[in-house]
Amino acid sequence: MQRPNQFVGYYRVSTKKQQASGLGLDSQRAAVRAYVTAQGGALAGEWVETESGKRDDRPELAKALGACRVRGAVLVVAKLDRLARRALMILRLIEESGAEFVALDHPQASKLTITIFAAIAEHEGALISARTKAALAEAKKRGTPLGGHVERITAAAQRRGSAAGAATRIERSAKFAADMGHIIRDLCPHVTSAKAIAGCLNAHGWPAPRGGQWTHVQVRRVLARLSA
Questions:
Q1: Which pTM value belongs to this model?
Q2: Does residue 76 belong to any structural domain of this protein?
Q3: Which domain holds residue 202?
Q4: How many whole angstroms separate alpha carbon 40 and alpha carbon 62?
């Protein structure tokens, strides 16, 4: 059976009084749940932030984005200003989190910003390539030998690429462990053994690093990274 689309709801209220009374929170939750139902999806989790939209430190948003990465889910907010009021902060969140999001009052916002980023990156890449070709052509015109130099540059670039790839994998594993740490603490606060934690995560449908069911070995690896 095909797994339904996964979504994570994020809600923000500005005061603890609003959170306690449900003022604004109920309407956000209702809108997000209605959207998920209309998409034929499943709501993997919901996080509520009590914080000003102008602040950058948003622990509940970080947890929600972590859950999106683990689940391969889409973050859903009722209104774009619930995510953040500052445009630059919204763009940074999209770029750094790697998670997709949908703002129900601006459903095309994520597609637009991703397109902008892609266009800028492509333009910068073209400029770098043009400058590199021009520099090589000028060096060749001056009679500068390029062969051995290019080979040395290529070998050095390959070594840097291998090191960068390893660093990226380590960073990705560390980020996954941090995301799962939040989930384990929230979901299984009274569970201590790796086997019991694996059972807790499996019971709630959280996927293992490469999909499928969690094992106690995988849990131990995550916990080891968290304590490193």
A1: 0.56
A2: yes
A3: 162-227
A4: 26
DSSP state string for the chain:
-PPPPEEEEEEEESSHHHHHHTTTHHHHHHHHHHHHHHTT-EEEEEEEEES-TT-S--HHHHHHHHHHHHHT-EEEESSHHHH-SSHHHHHHHHHHH---EEETTBTTHHHHHHHHHHHHHHHHHHHHHHHHHHHHHHHHHTT---HHHHHHHHHHHHHHHHHHHHHHHHHHHHHHHHHHHHHHHHH-TT--SHHHHHHHHHHTTPPPTTSS---HHHHHHHHHHHH-
Q: What confidence tens digit (pLDDT) does each residue in 182-194 have?
A: 888 888 888 788 8
Domain boundary among 107, 134, 151: 107
Count of domains observed in the chain: 2
Q: Do 17 and 96 sit in the same domain of this protein?
A: yes
